[in-house]
Amino acid sequence: MTEAKLRLGGMALRNGLLVHGPTQWAAAVRRPDGTIATASGHKPRMKGVDKVAGVRGVVRLGEAMLVIPLVKRALPQARLPFEDAAVVGAAVAASAGGLVARRAVRGMRGELAAVGLSLLPSVVALRAGEVAQYHGVEHKAIAAYEAPDDATDAADTDKEHDRCGSHLVTPMLATNVAGTMLLRRVVERPGPLAGGAVALASTAAAVEVFAWCERNSETRTARAIRRPGFEIQRVIGTREPDERQLEVGRAALAEILRVEEAQAPAADGR
Fold first, then answer.
1. Would you kindly state where each structural domain of the chain is located, as residue ranges?
2. How far, in Å, are 11, 57, 200, 211 from residue 51 at the CA level?
3. Which of 47, 51, 98, 153 is most buried, taking the most CB atoms under 10 A from its CB?
4. pLDDT tens, 63-99?
5. pTM to 2 decimals?
6. Any idea what DSSP says for residue 55?
7. Parallel, antiparallel, or unpaired: how do β-strands 24-30 and 36-42 relate?
C-alpha cells in the first residue's frame, strides 16, 4: 500500500460491510428487496495517544466500538454479527464453560480452556448466515483498493488479509493467560476489577504485538505469530463471496472514499 492511499479497516455485517477510514466510517447493506443502502458519518477520534504505547491500541479499538451505534442509527437495516439468538446462546455457554474450566482444571490448562471457549461466540457468528462471506468481502475490497494497479477488482484479490483482527488471537491468548497466571500468584482470589485490569492490559499488549508484526512483516517471528491468524481466516473466518456480496463491498468502499475525500479539504484548512 502506498503512502498516498488511506489506511482502511472494517467489520463484516450480517448483510453488508462497515469500513473505517482515518476520520470517517461508511457502511453498505443489502436490503431485503435486493437494493443496496449506504450511510456514512464522522468517526469518534481521541487525539494525542498515537505515540503512547499500550494506550493507543485500546483507544482505537474503543473508537471502533463507538461507531457501531452510529451505524445502527444511520442505517437501521444493518444487522450486526452478534444480532442472533445462537450467538447470544454461545456467549452465555462460553462464559459458563469458562468458569467451570477454571474450577475443574487448575493452572495454565484451565486458563487456556477458558480463553479458548471465549472464542466460541465469534465462531458461531462467522458460521451463521453471510458473515463469513462479508468478512471475505471486507478483505477483498480493501485489498483491491490497496493494490498497486488501480484497476484491480475485488473479485481478483485474496479473501485473507494481513491486517485482519484474527492476527490478534495468538498474542491475546498468550498475554491473557500469562497475565491471569501472574495475577493468581500475587492475589489468592482476584476479584472482577483485577480480572478486568488483566484483560485490558492483555489487549493493549496484543495490539502492540499486532502493530509490531505489521511493521516487521518479513521477519520469521512476525510470520510465525501471524500464521494462526491466516489459518483462522482460511478455515473459519472467511468464505469466498459471490458477485452480489462483492457489489455491496464496492458500494461501501466507494462511500468511504467519497466522504474521506470530502473531509480532506476541511482537515487541510484547520
1. 1-80+244-270, 85-127, 160-237
2. 25, 10, 18, 12
3. 98
4. 888 999 999 999 999 999 888 777 778 678 877 887 7
5. 0.83
6. T
7. antiparallel
